[in-house]
Amino acid sequence: MKAPQRLRSLIEEGLIDTVVRQLMSGKEAMVYVVRCGAETRCAKVYKEATQRSFRQAVDYTENRKVKNTRQARAMAKGTRFGREAQEAAWQSAEVDALYRLAAAGVRVPRPLNFHDGVLLMELVTDAHGDAAPRLNDVAFMPEQARTHHAALMTEVVRMLCAGVIHGDLSEFNVLLAADGPVIIDLPQAVDAAGNNHAQRMLLRDVANLGGFFGRFAPELLSAQFGPEIWALYERGLLQPETVLTGRFEARLGPVNVADVLRVVDDARAEEKARLLRLQLAT
Ligand SMILES: Nc1ncnc2c1ncn2[C@@H]1O[C@H](COP(=O)(O)OP(=O)(O)O)[C@@H](O)[C@H]1O
Ligand SMILES: [Mg+2]
User: Fold this and answer.
1) Is the Cβ–Cβ distance between 98 and 186 less than 8 Å?
2) Residue 54 has what pLDDT?
């Protein structure tokens, strides 16, 4: 196909030889299959902030580290320089997360380059070498569903041990490669230690996967992997090798009012983000 404008500079730089085809255009990016010499790769082109939908909402970007205070002030004020800095921070967050997670042994696409707002990475493929399907495009036998779900719980634990929560994990952001599930799409990844919404996001990520695989293996619908993982993490007991049971006994002690208020605040913030998304979408 004719190379799209946003990929031209990568061709001029010799990072890409040809553009083969466009993969599904996601909510926030356009993704292409490209050739580099003998290699087939994947190029993710981030849409401009104004075309993106929602994930820059405050709860995701809270506590995201910014390199200098001039940048931080400009971002807070929303000047053009500030918006550009925010944009760059958003895009490079995915590259950072990919490197961090690959180092922690999580199966993510291997990042290869980041140039002009384009992420070049490994193309995740199925057994025929074609771009791998997303989980939501595949139907599973109960046993396969259990196996993939267990593999993904291990990945979620590894990520959390590396201090990262995906924040938008679901059947739409997991590809089924020839050798099993691969987690993708990480620009909104959240820092587990420094974000007040970390627990809620972890629970939501895990619940999304339980809900999806539960369609094929219904016992997963009542499993308690999220609360189990979070309780171990909070007590400093979570290890990449931790064997999960899917069971969790809530300890009935005195209620911590501060925790309850935080959940209420979170629900409010989520509603606000939802309204903002609706506003941006119209
Ligand atoms: N490394 C990859 N290998 C193969 N397909 C990919 C890869 N990265 C993304 N895709 C495809 O592109 C789609 C959109 O990418 P994604 O990273 O989820 O961006 P968005 O933010 O637009 O959802 C994915 O659902 C998947 O089908
Ligand atoms: Mg996606």
Assistant:
1) yes
2) 54
Distance between Cα 250 and ligand 1 center (Å) = 37
Closest CA relative to residue 71, chosen from 81, 80, 56, 62: 81
The 8-class DSSP code of residue 124 comes to P
| Closest listed residue to residue 55, CA positions, set 66, 44, 64 | 64
Q: Which residues pair with 180 in a beta bridge?
A: 177
- Rounded distance, CA 109 to CA 120, Å? 10
DSSP H helical ranges for 51-141: 58-61, 69-77, 80-103
Question: What residues flank ligand 1, with Cβ below 6 Å?
Answer: 23-24, 26-29, 31, 42, 44, 109, 121-124, 131-132, 134, 173, 175, 184-185
Q: Helix, strand, coil: what percent of the chain each, to 5?
A: 45, 15, 40
The 8-class DSSP code of residue 217 comes to S
| Ligand 1 atom showing the smallest separation from residue 173 Cα | 18
Beta-strand pair 164-165/190-191: antiparallel
Which residues of the chain register pLDDT less than 50?
A: none
User: What's the pLDDT score for residue 200?
Assistant: 95
Phi-psi region of 167 (alpha: psi -120 to 50; beta: other; left: phi over 0): left
**So what's the pLDDT on residue 107?**
97
Best mutation site among 23, 55, 119, 170 for ligand 1, i.e. most ligand atoms within 8 A of its Cβ?
A: 23
Alpha-carbon distance 223 to 146, whole Å?
12
**Nearest-CA neighbor of 157 among 97, 244, 223, 98?**
244
210 and 220 in contact (C-beta within 8 Å)? yes
